[in-house]
Specification:
CATH architecture: 3-Layer(aba) Sandwich
Number of domains: 1
Helix content: 40-55%
Structural class: alpha/beta
Distance between the termini: 37 Å
Number of helices: 8
CATH superfamily: NAD(P)-binding Rossmann-like Domain
Largest sheet: 8 strands, mixed
Length: 260
Amino acid sequence: MRFSKKVALVTGAGSGIGRATAARMVSEGAVVVGSDISSSGLDETAGIISSSGLDETTGIINDAAAFYPVVSDVRSREACHELVDSTVTEHGHLDVLCNIAGVAGCHRVGDVDQSTWDQIMGVNVSGVFWMSQAALPHLESSGGCIVNMASNAGQIGQAYTVPYCASKAAVILITKAMAMETIRTPVRINAVAPGGVETNLVASFEFPADPDMELMGRYMGFRGMAQAGDIASAVAYLASDEAHRIHGAVLSVDAGLTAG
């Protein structure tokens, strides 16, 4: 019960790593406000958590932990600030922010249009920044932390994913720069950088026509795909008091993909 009496806000909680993170933190005692742009996805998450012991009527598990779904769009600064403010108003404080919401895409450079670029940057970069901006004053008061979702794609160049790589590299530098700005406060800010993970995000990945698979094969690794729960475990560790000496770090969870 590492998160007993703690309030966590998890974006992207309607699927994949966000869903797994929300479930993991509830299972360890947290009150979790889970946001997503998909109401149906949040309903599924609530059902999964409920089947693990959460009372759907009261939203409470073990008389302490709970999951509260909120539909929100992290691309909007106003929506992010409203989400954080409502969380603190309703639950009294904020201890953990997990910026998990993300989108991806596979495109040749010449095929990237304005809407694709804006969508990837809006969710992956602006969402992390606006949520962190809104949360930091409350986390400074609670001595809390932020865990951002980066990627191995933010650490090495990858063919056909220039916007995605750029967005995740930005997440890494947002993490490090904010860590330096807050270094005289009790806040901790870190990131997790997964390799391939079996989620709907990856399942819906569409390659461009006639890709050079020899280029793509370099990023597949040798140990297969991770499960969402594997990454949620890393997020939970960084969010817990066990990681109290870790600040400004990027934890690679990619089975050695970026080791050499």
